[in-house]
Design brief:
It comes from Faecalibaculum rodentium. The chain is an alpha/beta fold. Helix content is 43%, strand content 15%. The radius of gyration is 21 Å and the shape is globular.
Length: 495
């Protein structure tokens, strides 16, 4: 085994890429990172002349060195053949003064599909080295849950349990999860917010009793959140693809830089961009776009990360997050791999809810990252403005990214990551566009009159789909829920 990864908190906790994908999170609660990230640069000329699928296999090969070239080609073919509505997978479109990278053409109409059609393939390959099965535990603020459920549905030797905050996802997001079919899936609403669910899932991975119990069933607990490196690295590909499309469209030259505005809560999507930068992508800056839960904006501005603030329920629920897990990986790289310092900050966060980085680290972060945020009123305003001026409909998350991109744009072309279809948030989008308060299905059909694309088939089918998952539990009940869900994958077979 090539031990190419280790924990952000302890260099002694090591794993190969396959093991990192299977494990999800390190045994000390840290996240797996490549200490040599960027030592080998991507061949940009090669990327310019390859398809999305070819680039995906190539870039994943740079990041997951103990997967073979043939294994990655097979995984890419399985993930991206017939699963995305647009043949480009992630098409780039000019919208006003910015360029919008549409990441929502997958089966669940969210950017998570790009990675969560791939992760089951990577995990299945890694499981071949063992006699174990995998139980995927995932906390979601809305989009990850459905994308993970769709990706892992009826996958051999795998089960999945998804936990979402009760009443804090959109109606469409709720229906996507609650109607999910599959012999190996469980969905639970959790009383509390996303941070409560995410923190509890992390603790379950560190629960020795649960781990030993699962091991006795030949089951490995893993994650489909972006804490799992197998979920994170497929997202690196579309940053190169955005640059490739800009070059091939004649917008920039081969050596010109590009900037990205990324709506984010958990810091995973923008971190994938940073990985692309480390691999040689010519990037001038990343704009971190937050909603009213603007803990990241404050951090990038002041160097203080402080989650001790009221949790705000917004119309961009996938960003309603106060603990941005993947920021830990950035801190590792911005301290030149100082795991002791990262561990100390994470301990301080756990104990006090805050930490403050050194002025030197903040300066390094601010040399590449800027930040902005928008509350619901500003989000609705930009949705309406962009439609009025460009006849283009943004979902609330993408609108926040667009607004931040406009605010921070300079002479460098700015790419906005559009992370979800507006149809997933049709009620709020229509309210922004018309002022009307419509029911979810009326809003969906009214929105079709305004959008460039038809209602995605997966969303249209929800109207008459049967609710299959109605369980509501408290955080203390999550461990028992996981043990019950593990029955779906006993003996190495899905039930």
């Amino acid at each position: 085994m090539v031990t190419s990864y280790h924990s952000t908190r302890n260099k002694g906790i090591q794993a190969g890429a396959r093991e990192a994908v299977l494990t999800g999170i390190a045994s000390d609660g840290g996240l797996f990172v490549r200490p040599d990230l960027g030592t080998e640069k991507a061949d940009l000329d090669r990327i310019l002349n390859q398809s999305y699928q070819e680039n995906a296999a190539y870039i994943l090969g740079l990041l997951l060195p103990d997967y073979t070239e043939e294994e990655l080609k097979q995984a890419v073919a399985a993930a991206y053949t017939g699963t995305f509505a647009d043949k480009a997978i992630t098409p780039l479109k000019p919208v006003g003064d910015l360029h919008v990278l549409e990441l929502f053409h997958g089966p669940t109409s969210a950017f998570k599909d790009v990675a969560l059609t791939m992760l089951p393939q990577l995990m299945s390959i890694a499981l071949q080295d063992t006699e174990d099965s995998a139980m995927i535990l995932t906390a979601t603020s809305g989009d990850t849950g459905k994308a993970a459920l769709s990706g892992f549905r009826d996958v051999d030797r795998t089960g999945i349990a998804v936990f979402y905050p009760e009443g804090k996802v959109s109606q469409i997001q709720y229906r996507q999860m609650a109607t999910q079919q599959g012999s190996n899936v469980k969905v639970f609403a959790v009383r509390g917010n996303f941070d409560d669910a995410q923190s509890a899932v992390k603790q379950l991975f560190l629960d020795e009793d649960l781990g030993q119990w699962a091991a006795g069933q030949n089951i490995r607990l893993s994650s489909a959140n972006s804490i799992n490196v197998g979920r994170l690295v497929p997202q690196v590909v579309y940053y190169f693809e955005a640059w490739k499309q800009l070059v091939n469209q004649g917008v920039i030259g081969r050596d010109d830089k590009v900037s990205f505005s990324v709506p984010t809560g958990n810091f995973g999507d923008v971190l994938a961009g940073y990985y692309a930068y480390r691999l040689g992508l010519p990037v001038k800056k990343f704009v971190v776009a937050s909603n009213a839960n603007n803990v990241l904006t404050e951090f990038i501005t002041t160097g203080v990360y402080d989650r001790n603030r009221p949790f705000v329920k917004t119309i961009s629920p996938s960003m309603d997050i106060l603990i941005s897990s993947n920021l830990e990986r950035l801190l590792y790289y911005m301290t030149d791999g100082n795991t002791e310092q990262v561990a100390a900050w994470m301990q301080e966060l756990a104990e006090t809810g805050r930490y403050e980085v050194t002025p030197e680290v903040l300066e390094r972060i601010r040399s590449l990252f800027e930040a902005d945020y928008a509350d619901d009123a500003a989000t609705k305003e930009i949705i309406a403005d962009v439609y009025k001026e460009e006849r283009y409909v943004l979902d609330p998350h993408s609108a926040i990214g667009y607004r931040a991109g406009l605010a921070k744009k300079d002479d460098t072309p700015m790419v906005v990551l559009a992370t979800a279809s507006p149809y997933k948030f049709a009620q709020d989008v229509m309210q922004a566009l018309t002022g009307e308060e419509l029911g979810e299905w009326d809003a969906l059909h009214r929105l079709q009159e305004l959008c460039q694309d038809p209602i995605p088939a997966g969303l249209a089918a929800l109207e008459n789909a049967k609710i299959l998952h109605e369980a509501v539990i408290g955080v203390p009940g999550m461990k028992e829920a996981v043990q019950g869900a593990c029955s779906l994958v006993k003996n190495g077979e899905t039930a």
